[in-house]
Amino acid sequence: MESCAHPDHPASTDAMAGPIRHAGPNHPGHGSPHSCPTHLMAALHDHPIGIRQERPHLWWEDPILDGCGWQKAYEIRLAENGQTVASTGWVESDSSTAVAWPFAPLAPLEHRTWQVRVQMTNECTAITRCSAWSAPQTIVRGSESADLWQKALPLWSPSGTPITARHPGPAHSGDGRLTLTLPVSCPPVTLLARAADDGNDGYAWTIDLQAGTLTASRKMNGVLTPLAKAALPHTQSRTQSEARPHSDESGVEAHSAQRASGTPSDARTLTFWVDCHGSTASVGVDGAVVLRQKDVQGAGDSWGVQAGGREARICSARLEGADGRLLTDVDSADSTRPLPWFARRESGMMVVPAGSAGMFGEPGAGDYWALLRRVVDLPEGTISSALVFASAADPVGARQYVYRLLVNGRQAGTGPARDARGPVYETHDVTNLVHPGRTVLAALCWAQAGGSFRALMRVTYTDGRTLTFGTDGSWSARSGGAWRPWTGDLNNGVHYYVAPREDLDARREPVGWDSDPNWDAEAVRRAGFRPAKVVGDVDLIPAPHADKSTPLSCVSRRPAVVRRIGSSRWLVDAGIESAYAVCLHIDGIGDIDDISDSGDAFGLEGVRLRLHMGEQVENTDNGSVRFETLSCMRFEDVWTLREGAQTLRHWGCRKRDRGSSGSRV
Q1: What is the torsional sign of CA 109, 110, 113, 117?
Q2: What is the maximum span of the chain, computed from C-alpha positions, in angstroms?
Q3: N or C: where does the chain have the smaller number of CB atoms within 10 Å of the terminal CB?
Q4: Mean of the per-residue pLDDT values for the chain?
Q5: 3-state SS assignment for residue 242
C-alpha cells in the first residue's frame, strides 16, 4: 500500500520503504538512534525542501548517553556537496527547539545539508558525553521570483478534455432557459442554474413528482439549503389563471401551480423549465409558472442537472442562451446525438446515475487525465543535487492534488496543495533518482477543471555546473484513454469531493511511458503520445509561489495483514491511520492462484480484480469491508489485468483508515 500522508503528521514518521529515501530525522546514518540527535526539523518541516524562510529555525531530539540526559552544548555544521562550509563550534546551551539559524541567510534554490551533535551531561555525576553527528538533513529554500517560471509552459494532453475557466468547458450563459422533459415516473431530479463549473455552488430546483413538490434551494459546497417549496400541477385540467401567487421572506414567489389549460390528465411526460433573466429566475411546468425567485446572484454561469438517491431518467434536455442561441440539445431517443459525459442512454432515455451531477455543454466523455513525459540527457559528472519544482491546476475539485511525479518510473512526489493565495509549487528532491545519461521525467495528472502542469528540473554538479529543464515543446502527452476510462467519480450522493473512480485496464496501459528512456519517435507515436498542448499564456498566468506547508509525500508500506478469505478473495489490512492508495505488484499467474473455481488453468489476460476499500471491516468471517461510507462516498474500483508481470497503482488517495480497516480484493 502507498500511504498518502503529510510528512509532518506523526503517521508518516515511521520507517519509509518507498523509492525515495530522504536523509532526515528518522534515518540516522552516522550513529545508532541512541547515540546521536534525531528527528531534525527546519522551519517545523522534517523534509525542508522548498521552504520559504531564509533563516529557518532548527529543532532536534537529544539522545540519552550512558545515563546523561541533559544537553549541555551543541554544534551545528552546514555542508555543500558533502564538504563543510560553515560551523558554529560548540555552543553552550540546553536549547534544542526553535534554535535560531546560525549561518548566513539561505539563497533561493540553494541546496545545503545540516547536522548537529550535542554534549549530554548527568547533573548528579557531572559526567559528560559527546554524541555522534546526526544524519545530514537536506535543506533548500524556494524561490518567489516569477523569472523562475518563464522557462516552464503550462501543458496538458492534446487529445483529452482540458477544462478551463471559459473554453471549452460548460456552456456559459448567465441568462437563458433550461428545459427538461421528464417521464411522470421519474424519481426526484434537480435543475442547476447560475452555478459554478463544478456544480457545487449555485441555485437549484428539485422536482419531486411523487410528492408533487418543487423545492428551490441555494447550493453551497455541494450542500442544498431549501429556500421555498411549491406544489406541482395536479393531473386534472386547470386554467393558468387559477394560480394564486404568494411570497415568503426569502424573496421566492410561489404560485399555486396548476396544469395549463388543455394538458391531458393522463400525460406520460411533463416539461419543466427554469428561466434566468437579470436577477430573477422563474421555474415552471408546461405553461404554468410554479416559482419566481428574485435577487438570484449565482456562483457562475453554468447550467446542469443532478440526480437524487435514485437514477434519473430524462426524455430530452434543451439549453438556450439569452440571445436564443441553442447551447445544448439532447434528444434521448435519437441515438445519433451525443449525450453529456455524466449520463448514459438506456431504452431511449438519458440516465443520470444516482447521486451524480453534471453541467450541460461540457464536451467529451469526461477524460480529464493527462500523461506527460520528457527524456533529458544528463552529461557525465558527479551530480550533487537534482530538484524538481512542479505546479499544476486545479487541485480544488479533487480536494487533494493534481499530479504524481515520476522519475525513471519511480515515485518522486505529488502536488500541489490547495492554497487560498493562488497557485503554489512543490519542491521535490530527486537526487537519488537521477544519474548521468538519459532520464525520464513523467507526470500522471488528473483535473476536472483548469487542467495544466508546469515543472522545472534543476541539476547541479559538484564542479559548479547547473542545468535547468522546463516544460516546453519537447514534452509529449496523451489522455487517459482506454487505460483509465471515465467510469464516474467517488461521490455517492454528495458533490463536495470530486475525484475519479480508477477502473484501470492494464491491457491498454502504454507500458514504459514513465520509465523507458529509449523510446524512439515511432514508439512514442504508437503509444498515443503527441506534442503536449500549451494551455495558457505564461506571461498572463500568475507565477506560483512556494508552498508554505510540507507537500504530501507518498510512503510505501507493506500491509499489516493479508488474509485469504475464500476462493479468489483477500482481505488486506493497512493497520495504520492514513489516507492510502493501493499499489499491486504481480509477478505472474502464481500470485493469483485458484482464481478459477473450476480449476482450469488460464493466464491473467482479462482477469478482473474488484477492490473494496473502507475504513472498517464489517464482517471478519467473510472479510466484507464498508466501502460505501457514512459520508456518502463509494470506494470501489475494478482493475483488469494483462498477461505477465505488472504493477497497478492508484493515482489518488482512497481511504483514511481508522483502527481496524482494510481493502478486499
Answers
A1: negative
A2: 104
A3: C
A4: 79
A5: helix
DSSP state for residue 191 in the 8-state scheme: E
CB 156 within 8 A of CB 459: no
Position with higher pLDDT, 643 vs 593: 643
pLDDT in tens, 352-404: 888 777 777 644 445 688 999 999 999 999 999 999 999 998 777 677 889 99
Three-state SS sequence of 502-547: CCCEHHHCCCCCCCCCCCCHHHHHHCCCEECEECCCCCCCCCCEEC
Q: Is 147 exposed, middle or buried (0-12, 13-18, 19+ CB in 10 A)?
A: exposed
Residue 563 has pLDDT above 80, yes or no: yes
What percentage of the chain exceeds 90 in pLDDT? 34
Query: By the 8 A CB rule, do 379 and 401 touch?
Result: no
Give the residues across from 245 on adjacent strands: 255
Q: How many Cβ atoms are within 10 Å of 153's Cβ, its own excluded?
A: 23
Q: How far apart are CA 541 and CA 96, in angstroms?
A: 42
CA distance 545 to 139: 18
- In the chain, what is the straight-line distance between the N-terminal and C-terminal CA atoms, in Å? 13
Residue labelled with grid coordinates 559528560: 128
3-state helix vs strand vs coil in the chain, percent to 5: 5, 45, 55
pLDDT of residue 52 exceeding 70: yes
C-alpha cell at 559: 500491509
Show Cβ contacts of residue 334 under 8 Å, excluding neighbours closer than 6 positions.
none
Length of the chain in residues, anyone?
A: 665
Q: What is the pTM of this model?
A: 0.68
